[in-house]
Amino acid sequence: MSSKFDFESLTLGEVAFLEKTTGLSLGSIGDDDAPKGDLLMALVVIVKRRTGSPEYTTVDAAQLTLTAANAIIGLGDDEDPEVKN
């Protein structure tokens, strides 16, 4: 992806999905001490669903490397790597 994830663009449904998946309130997600694994999985799912993979799940996201997840949500390289399952 060519830009970083924009939290302001989240729908209320996506906010609820993030909070349910991570167990954190939206306000505490940026806390340095908050766990990040579930957050990254949820963000990957949101991005993949927005970009044409509505069936993408947290189980799919859990298979990714940290590098691949960061690239998908715009925190790594600018291209979306091929993911082989």
Description:
The chain is mainly α and 85 residues long. It is 45% helix and 0% strand. It is built from 4 helices and no strands. Helix 1 (12-22) packs antiparallel against helix 2 and helix 2 (37-50) packs across helix 4 (66-73).
List the main descriptive attributes of the protein structure presented here.
single chain, 45% helix, 85 residues, 4 helices, mainly alpha
Ordered list of secondary-structure elements with their pairings:
Elements: H1 12-22, H2 37-50, H3 58-62, H4 66-73
Shape, principal axes of CA atoms: globular
Count every helix, treating DSSP H or I runs of 4 or more residues as helices.
4
**How would you sum up the major sheet?**
none
Question: Percent helix among the residues?
Answer: 40-55%
Beta strand count: 0
Intertermini distance: 20 Å
Radius of gyration: 12 Å
Overall number of structural domains:
1
Classify the secondary structure makeup into a structural class. Answer: mainly alpha
Quick structural overview:
With 85 residues, the chain is mainly α. The protein has helices at 12-22, 37-50, 58-62, 66-73. The relative contact order is 0.18.
